[in-house]
Amino acid sequence: MKNKLKTVKPPKIAPYSKAHERYLKKLRNDKIFVISFQVVILFTFIGLWELLTATKVIDPFFVSSPSRVFNMFISLVEDGTIWRHIGITLLETIVGFAIATLGGTLIAILLWWNKRLRRILEPYIVVLNSLPKIALGPIIILWVGSGMSAIITMCVLICIVLTTISMLNAFNSCDADKIQLMKSMHANKFQIFWKLILPNATDEFISVLKINVGMSWVGTIMGEYLSSSAGLGYLIVYGSQIFKIDLVMTSTVLLCLLAALMYLAICLIQKWHSR
Amino acid sequence: MSAMLEFKDVNFFYQTKAAEIHALKDLNFTVEEQSFASIVGPSGCGKTTILSLIAGLLKKSSGRILLNGKEIEENDWRIGYMFQRDHLFEWRTIWQNVILGIELNKPKDADKKKEFAQQLLKKYDLYDFISSKPRSLSGGMRQRVALIRTLVMEPALLLLDEPFSALDFQTRLKVCDDVYEIIKSEQKTAVLVTHDISEAISMSDKIIVLSSRPATVKHVQMLNLNGETPLSRREDPTFGALFDLIWKKLTNEKQTQNS
Q: Which domain holds residue B224?
């Protein structure tokens, strides 16, 4: 028999009726309500911000304003510098994110594979996790030099320990009876890992990706604060040094948008996976 | 019928930080070919340990465990194990779950085994769900899939570790009938571990009653009830008397354990 089998859809579970239609409509309306409120909150915030700064209730010198942010963005687009800064920060974040996620998962695999090694390294991992990574900033610059390599290292350091701990917990939380089932089917350790432990940890892996999206941005911006000559973090530091709050706010808004886009990409992966 | 499975003076000790525990003591019993044997005993007496020893998941401390007269080997494909819960992998389709054993061991006759899997799925009304994920199946259907997953590798001896205990009573009776029918029609030998005396009587040709830890064989009851299915065998006039007998053996055991 060939491996490929004809796809047969399971029978429809819920019968279609007026009540079912009402239920679906209620779900739709609920979704529309939630999204509408989210949009209202955003526009109210922007509107109030603009209004309060335009009427000088709050000083735009300290908080900028949406119109100033927009104008700053346009001027940065026109002189073309913004793309370089976005590109550099994005590259640092994505590289840091990828190295930390992959490296952390590989370390977790190694620790799952070798229980004794895990027991030996456990206290060091705990200490590394609780260590404020920013404290390592000067040492990082000394070791890997300033610039992009230091920023990526900072990003990796912030994400990797958390990834290792989360993935190791996910591997260890696999049902012992399922492992016994695999053993009863004469699976070797690699097969147990590949066919059971790893796919069983997929949900946790996606959670780690989501956490790492946020953490990698933190790492990159922290790295750029410490040592950089380009990037959105650099623009924020530069803007604050010369009291150009419009530049600080524009960079911050861009950071929010980029982080949200990256998070959205992970959500899409999750949606594709759970199908 | 000749003995397919033989336990000869089997002892098993397991180690904990606090002590060494003698779990099975000089255990002797046989299970005949194509028969259905049940093991009952007080909680924690070592029933599942017996199955783990047969499946090669644990190593006996002493004695002999023979399958068709030969010592059981590690990775013995003549043995199939069905657990308390179905343990279907939720990320795999029903078909992928069923052929898991084939994927893991890549037998030479993989195509033949896949064909057999397909036949079983058709025969037991699961073929329409081959592309579905386990979550879309009822508890009873899932348990049938788990049994087919075990049967696909064509084991001669099936080990059933309380496979119905996670099901509600009605489903349990139905699945019990289904599983019994599958085992009988595929001419398998089965060893069932259960807490449920009715279930043991309705399915078995032989019941082995164990003592509390360290487990020894306290009583062996041969059965020959009328009826084609476990449900119909419950209507046999001797069913009640047999239940009382096994119950007394077990309660005596509990009293001894308490005193």
A: 1-78+198-259
Pick from B74, B82, B104, B132 the residue to mutate for testing the A interface (most A CBs within 10 Å).
B104
Question: Do the chains contact at A199 and B83, CB–CB below 8 Å?
Answer: no
> Per-residue b/e over A206-241, b at no fewer than 16 CB within 10 Å?
bebbbbbbebbbbbbbbbbbbbbebbbbbbbbbbee
Classify A68-274 by CATH class.
mainly alpha
Q: Cα(A161)–Cα(A35) distance, rounded to whole angstroms?
A: 36
- What mean pLDDT comes out for the span B222-242? 87
| Three-class SS state of A226 | helix
The CATH number assigned to the domain holding B26 equals 3.40.50.300
Contact B87 A181 (CB under 8 A): yes
For residue B186, what pLDDT is reported?
82
Chain B residue with minimal CA distance to A180?
A: B57
**Residue A206 touches partner B, C-beta closer than 8 Å:** no
CB spacing of A199 vs B91 below 8 angstroms:
yes
Residue A166 pLDDT level (bands cut at 50, 70, 90)? very high
What is the pLDDT at residue A1?
A: 45
User: CB-based contact (8 Å) between A176 and chain B?
Assistant: no
pLDDT for residue A2 = 45
Number of domains in chain B: 1
Beta-carbon separation of B136 and A3 below 8 A: no
B144 found inside a domain: no
Interface pTM (ipTM) of the complex?
Answer: 0.85
